[in-house]
Amino acid sequence: MTAPTTPQFHVYDTTLRDGAQQEGMNLSVADKLAIAPLLDELGVGFIEGGWPGAVPKDTEFFKRAAKELDLRNAELAAFGSTRKPGVRAVDDPQVRALVDSEAPVVAIVAKHDLRHAERALRTTGEENIAMIADTVAFLVREGRRVVVDAEHFFDGYRFDADYTRAAVVAGFEAGAEVVALCDTNGGMVPTWVADIVHELRGVVGPDAILGMHAHNDSGCAVANTLAAVEAGCSHIQGTVNGYGERTGNADLLAIVANLELKYGRSVLASGDGGLADLTRIAHAISEITNISPFARSPYVGASAFAHKAGLHASAIKVDPDLYQHIDPALVGNDMRMLVSDMAGRASIELKGRELGFDLAGRSELLGRVTDRVKDAEANGYTYEAADASFELLLVEEIDGERPQYFRVESWRTIVERSGSRGTPATAEATVKLHAGGERHVSTGEGNGPVNALDHALRQALIKVYPELESFELIDFKVRILDSMHGTDAVTRVLIETSDGQTAWSTVGVGPNLLEASWEALTDSAIWGLRNRGVAPR
Amino acid sequence: MTAPTTPQFHVYDTTLRDGAQQEGMNLSVADKLAIAPLLDELGVGFIEGGWPGAVPKDTEFFKRAAKELDLRNAELAAFGSTRKPGVRAVDDPQVRALVDSEAPVVAIVAKHDLRHAERALRTTGEENIAMIADTVAFLVREGRRVVVDAEHFFDGYRFDADYTRAAVVAGFEAGAEVVALCDTNGGMVPTWVADIVHELRGVVGPDAILGMHAHNDSGCAVANTLAAVEAGCSHIQGTVNGYGERTGNADLLAIVANLELKYGRSVLASGDGGLADLTRIAHAISEITNISPFARSPYVGASAFAHKAGLHASAIKVDPDLYQHIDPALVGNDMRMLVSDMAGRASIELKGRELGFDLAGRSELLGRVTDRVKDAEANGYTYEAADASFELLLVEEIDGERPQYFRVESWRTIVERSGSRGTPATAEATVKLHAGGERHVSTGEGNGPVNALDHALRQALIKVYPELESFELIDFKVRILDSMHGTDAVTRVLIETSDGQTAWSTVGVGPNLLEASWEALTDSAIWGLRNRGVAPR
């Protein structure tokens, strides 16, 4: 048999589709549109965006993605299913919707375990194979590159290898570019994967592009994917941070880092640049999914290169490479000594340079800024996603104070509801402050207390600083930091503001959510005014 | 060469020693004394308790363990180091302390990478090998079973195989029972491990007991350990929940479950009993370490057997084994159906059954509940992580109304700050409601508005429902749902409450964060009272 072939290695991300199946994850269209450019920047070759037709917000995603996204490295892929038993592919509205999504790549999930065809689809093995062949052929005729997701491939192979092989061959013969072998239930171990892929290779020939789609139920998803690549798979599927149903999908970041750094294979379309941003991209996506990053994640975790000082401390200082499997800078992470304070200055110097501040010769200043950042981070701040707040901190250390655009006397919010469930609550806020030589008192209303505070602050300042007119709050995120203390915990608020040209992010932290929000709101106004070159009035 | 041999497979737990190196973990002697019996119950063969002599609380642990612990399956192991360069083992106080600990098993860490011997120890390769041989021989003469932890074995082998092999042989010839091959920096992948262990086996002969000690820096710790076992290692080291420095040690629970269930090897001294308690033991140890369990952990995670896809729900109902890699009961875990926005009638029927409601014959009711769930989820609710709110919805549809424990007249929160940055804000809440035939008005204070509302609600109800005394808010999560609309967005609040015995979760949604919090707080009180069998008063 013959199969189409491309010379490249496929890194196929399914964070937005299979990753979103994770318990507790619920991505909006806006979330997906924000994640896709980060994946593209990393340099994946394919971004599977969802199931248009079956999930209304995925239909909308593909519509908006076509207009709004400008991807350099990745192709968008729509996920769907083979046609239903007993209908023509062209007449199946679910298949039709895949074409209508206008995604250039379509992945169709297709049963490759005879038991699933018979018991879940309640059809025959022959009809299931016809469903694969018809659906692939139809999509290829419609000009799509087709990936077959061979669902339950490994379990099916172990149950009835002949049937499963026939299904794979049918997909290739109908024109599929890739057949991705799915360990849907996640129970494989690497040697099982290697043996089966080797056997299958003998059936499909050397040129067929086989893929691997692993889940982590045995704790082996990364290793199973590496085993598949060693056995000749050249298309890998996975998710950022290993998101996914049950124990998660294979962690695409760890796989890519292993392939690039351990196997010496260049698999990212972005070249080395993407890999050097691995940690930043992993954390930025965590912010969007609002799922706390796992500190022990390979390569990108906050603890991944953290050493408890003591026994090895001096040896590590002299010869760090003897104590780490790779140089953390290769994946944009840092070695941290948990007791001593070796880390930090270099990255803060770099960050300063990025923002236009040359700290290179100013060792004492750099030391003070590093100390303040460490202190703040110990208290729950994070500057990773709040450049504007970091810049204000830097300005404060350089100039000795923050720019004094206004002086706050007091603020207050009142939220109340009269009546039972269903009656809406009202929120108002009053802000008293001094600016432009006068005292300003204003009250704002809003859907909730933060919204009301934002309105009141803006109203109080607008006469003195009409530039604020164009500022708009475009994102607001809340994270509870120590979840073991219930509502006593510390709250971190991240706010993103835009003036139509630039967008900037600020952070506030405190035991009181509204206090944290207030801090981020005022930082946002100050940074925005300073950035426009407005002097305090 | 010859080596001592035992017929058994060694499961060697190092949670209390290497696991305790994890960032943020700090185990007291009491913690260790509480964890050890759980490990013994699981059926591990060895419990490495710490480094007596070097760490004072570990010295105390071994002293108290000898008196207080009654272990059935496990031997205690003390961890230490080879003697220093240039002194006799008998004269090295650190080695002496290992004997004094009276642990029947001693593990000594010994350099197996020539670079580490020369650069970290600043000695010669020959002296390093003499240090291994002398220390092992001394401990064996003192009647101890000796495990050599061959530190940096794999990196050393790849750098200078001859030297590393000579070090391993020296350990066995001096009388070590086991040489455990350590991937100290955690950078190996399974095929590298397999190749090296195979090669080494040719050197040490078929009877030498080789062990594997893996770290997860490549995301392959479990698979690397399995590869080592396939290549003939019969001693495995790891930690519960994969605790450990950086990315953690190999997760002993996943390895043991894989060996028992995938490889069909009986490796636990407790027989099947221990495996069936795997989930309970993993969670009990999390309670002691005070590190939140990772929901996506293989086998034991809360999400490990949780299914979201509405698509498959009907098939899962018919044939659960087609959708899970093992029967979760084998490891003491449970299948859970998550009610999600792809939910259909089948998954809601299953969820109802899980909560004790038989909806099988009640098609009209099932239809109504499904419609309400879909409607609610479209508005931002999620019942995946809020079983208690889902149950109240179900009860409302069955009985025609929610249990009427109280009727809310109004509530109000005030948060205010006078003064500049740094002055703390104050929060108070007033609740007016009717319960037990009376009107109750109460005001609560708190760190923030939700905390204040919780206090006020509790105070207003406590006279009528003293059962609320034991309820405690243990988790509070906030998610902004459509993050592109800034503070106008919809907010979802998830609250977890405990009464010391049971924990339950509720959800609230609204444009106003405090309104959403109020909904989740009141649902929580209602569910808790109903669950205790309290009737509305």
Given helix and strand content, the structural type of chain A is alpha/beta
Q: What's the total helix number of chain A?
A: 18
Shape category of chain A: globular
Q: Which CATH top level class of the largest domain in chain A fits?
A: Alpha Beta
- Based on the structure, what is the oligomeric state of the protein chains? homodimer
What would CATH call the homologous superfamily of the largest domain in chain A?
Aldolase class I
Q: What low-confidence regions of chain A span 5 or more consecutive residues with pLDDT below 50?
A: 1-7, 339-343, 483-487
* Greatest contact between two chains: A-B, 120 and 120 residues
Strand numbers in spatial order across the main sheet of chain A: 1-2-3-4-5-6-7-8
Mean of the pLDDT scores of chain A? 90
- Taking the alpha carbons of the first and last residues of chain A, their distance comes to 77 Å
Keywords (chains A, B): Amino-acid biosynthesis, Branched-chain amino acid biosynthesis, Isoleucine biosynthesis, Transferase
Catalytic activity (chains A, B): pyruvate + acetyl-CoA + H2O = (3R)-citramalate + CoA + H(+)
Organism (chains A, B): Cellulomonas rhizosphaerae
GO molecular function (chains A, B): (R)-citramalate synthase activity; 2-isopropylmalate synthase activity
